[in-house]
């Protein structure tokens, strides 16, 4: 089963926005067993859209289209689809109700241009848009399925999860696929592969293992394909357990979640708290934690001690430590993490201090030198790293490495 | 002049990575006066790549290809290009030197598979890769230009800026284009358009004005097209000055930079400092500032006071304030911002406290309720906002709104 994603609109082609929709849709389709053959971004141009549709139906079975459904003149997806299918346009009662509902909710008058949002090609089945006025549309034509959706991410996402994926599964009678993700941190692909080589060799042909590496973390994804959902789940779980017990503490989570979310869950389930003291990461570690709902249950907060004065006043780093050893030193990192534990009254703390660059490096401490400390009341671990010379990457790698060290410290908490 | 961007490789098609390369390339091409007609992401499949190339050359003049240049078996871009152009492969001396240089630098033995990185289709002109072993390649074929580059972002970016763009400008004798960006914050597109309607109407046909809105900010971009670079620069500057003086303090910067970077520049040029006290944004505002090189000159740091205890201990918010008014209140925001000024000894401070959601809302203070305070020794401004019910958006909107309020407070600093 092959699919193509077509995004329509100029914002992507002039580089004003990054196309995050397509990556998200591709993930969803892949998880359902539909392979994405091509992603095409085209302009709001009639002939160009017609050509893209024609090319796509020659290579795939399912064509998912986003964008170009707004009420303004430059949005021409609907009428171009009608031309492509050689049908007329009709007003859809359900879509009109939805437009009226949304205008009533915001107490705005319904203009003719808004009413036209309910006009759709007459061969389509309308997919209701709970979050906006532009209806989604499902077409079946000469053995292929076409789905047109708005480009607004959350309108599109809701439609895909709630309506499009279930309908695709039903239409194409896709086999059951069960995924199980194991999140690891701190070891590379080749190390992991060696550790679980025996298990990997013993996998039956209908269970696949994929390594998905990303910035110091590797996700291991087991995918089982089959007819009997219950047996499949048991079988996948069996191999997952073998892998998890072989890998030990590098495993952070047994589901597909963010690393910091896994750590928050671990802390919360043991009623433990965390604080941070950030210098070179400048708030990024705190931001990683606090982007997750409910993070306040385990995360108390912390200091962004960018200046030396703040390292002293908020964290209690000694003035003589800063003078004798410098802000980027084992001793400063240690005092920072202990200051966080003490002043912020948390069970665990993370502290980082380093030279993110591009300026500030010396021969002894080049750009990319970072000290990371993690601590509990019982134990403090401090390590030095030398990352690269790119500021953004140094910030990200420092954060992920610190999270990995915290994971090791938490152990079997 | 039209271009197509083709990305080759499965990572994008399975949704493992978001295609940020294409947006970046599209921006660069647009700034040089080359319009991107289509972006296509295709798999590492010989026939699929051949079809994509054939389709692209039917609609555009320039085809920029990224990815599929690694040393492993699944990277087939080079040999597929040779097949497409019906030429053989030869070893390129310059590319081989580059491979040897990089292996010598990291003190690694040169294997046969690495030596093959220097094999290229015989009709290409090699584009040296300063940051990696895979050479870029420039082809001219039947009046069209094809450029193949690695998919690794910084290798590709360096090639585009340093070599590909200058060569495209020279090959196609593109007209001069001068862009001037004016960054505004706090007012919407329609407000701005009304304020500068007269100026916009008076623009000559060879100078265009674009509104590029993004999260509470609008970039106004003047683009001048012409033959004489000096005259054009003077002319664009003339209209820019008119716009800037009409818009007053909503203008933050006269170049295309990030909002927070513009604020840092303003502070630095007046030798003023800033600190922050973040509750609901959880470190995001600090992260925005500290991602910029040199931010430590103006940004001292701050507190991520997620828990009430930290609001008291680091910022000196009164216990009775928290009890009587709650953490999300005018009084708490005021005490936070004044605590930051005092404890962190900065000239300016930002404080935010709110309910990012999805939990924690009440009838009186629904999810999305945020208090933002900005202050100097002389003045404190506190405002209440009600954003939406999406956590990530609440964090971003709070941050941008706080930056806008700081901009107003800074005034003509």
Automatic annotation (TrEMBL), chains A, B:
Gene3D superfamilies: CinA-like (3.90.950.20), MoaB/Mog-like domain (3.40.980.10). Residues 4-171 form the MoaB/Mog domain. InterPro entries: CinA (IPR050101), CinA-like_C (IPR036653), CinA_C (IPR008136), CinA_KH (IPR041424), Competence-induced_CinA (IPR008135), MoaB/Mog-like_dom_sf (IPR036425), MoaB/Mog_dom (IPR001453). SMART domains: MoCF_biosynth. It comes from the Bacteria. It holds the Pfam family CinA. Belongs to the CinA family. NCBIfam families: cinA_nterm (TIGR00200), molyb_syn (TIGR00177), PncC_domain (TIGR00199), PRK00549.1 (NF001813). This is CinA-like protein.
């Amino acid at each position: 089963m092959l699919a193509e994603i077509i995004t329509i609109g100029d914002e992507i082609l002039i580089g004003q926005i990054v196309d995050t929709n397509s990556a998200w849709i591709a993930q969803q389709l892949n998880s359902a067993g539909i392979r994405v053959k091509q992603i095409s971004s085209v302009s709001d141009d009639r002939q160009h859209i017609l050509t893209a549709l024609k090319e796509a139906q020659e290579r795939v079975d399912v064509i998912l289209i986003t964008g170009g459904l707004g009420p303004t003149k430059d949005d021409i997806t609907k009428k171009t689809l009608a031309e492509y299918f050689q049908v007329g346009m009709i007003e859809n009662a359900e879509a009109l109700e939805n437009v009226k509902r949304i205008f009533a909710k915001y107490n705005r008058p319904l203009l003719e241009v808004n009413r036209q949002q309910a006009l759709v090609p007459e061969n389509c089945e309308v997919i209701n848009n709970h979050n906006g006025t532009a209806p989604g549309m499902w077409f079946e034509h000469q053995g292929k399925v076409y789905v047109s959706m708005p480009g607004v991410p959350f309108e599109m996402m809701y439609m895909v999860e709630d309506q499009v994926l279930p309908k695709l599964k039903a239409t194409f009678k896709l086999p059951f696929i069960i995924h199980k993700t194991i999140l690891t941190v701190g070891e590379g692909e080749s190390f992991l592969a060696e550790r679980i080589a025996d298990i990997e060799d013993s996998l039956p042909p209908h269970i696949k293992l994929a390594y998905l590496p990303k910035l110091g973390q590797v996700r291991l994804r087991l995918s089982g394909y089959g007819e009997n959902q219950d047996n499949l789940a048991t079988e996948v779980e069996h191999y997952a357990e073998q892998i998890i017990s072989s890998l030990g503490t590098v495993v952070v989570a047994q589901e597909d979640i963010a690393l910091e979310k896994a750590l928050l869950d671990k802390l919360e389930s043991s009623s433990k708290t965390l604080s941070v003291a950030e210098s070179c990461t400048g708030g990024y570690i705190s931001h990683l934690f606090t982007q997750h709902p409910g993070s306040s249950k385990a995360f108390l907060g912390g200091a962004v001690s960018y200046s030396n004065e703040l390292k002293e006043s908020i964290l209690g780093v000694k003035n003589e430590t800063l003078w004798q050893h410098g802000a980027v030193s084992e001793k400063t990192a240690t005092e920072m993490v202990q200051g966080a534990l003490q002043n912020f009254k948390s069970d665990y703390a993370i502290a980082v201090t380093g030279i993110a660059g591009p300026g500030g490096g010396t021969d002894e401490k080049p750009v990319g030198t970072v000290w990371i400390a993690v601590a509990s009341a019982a134990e403090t671990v401090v390590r030095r790293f030398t990352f690269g010379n790119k500021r953004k990457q140094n910030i990200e790698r420092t954060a992920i490495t610190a999270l990995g060290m915290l994971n090791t410290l938490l152990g079997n908490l």
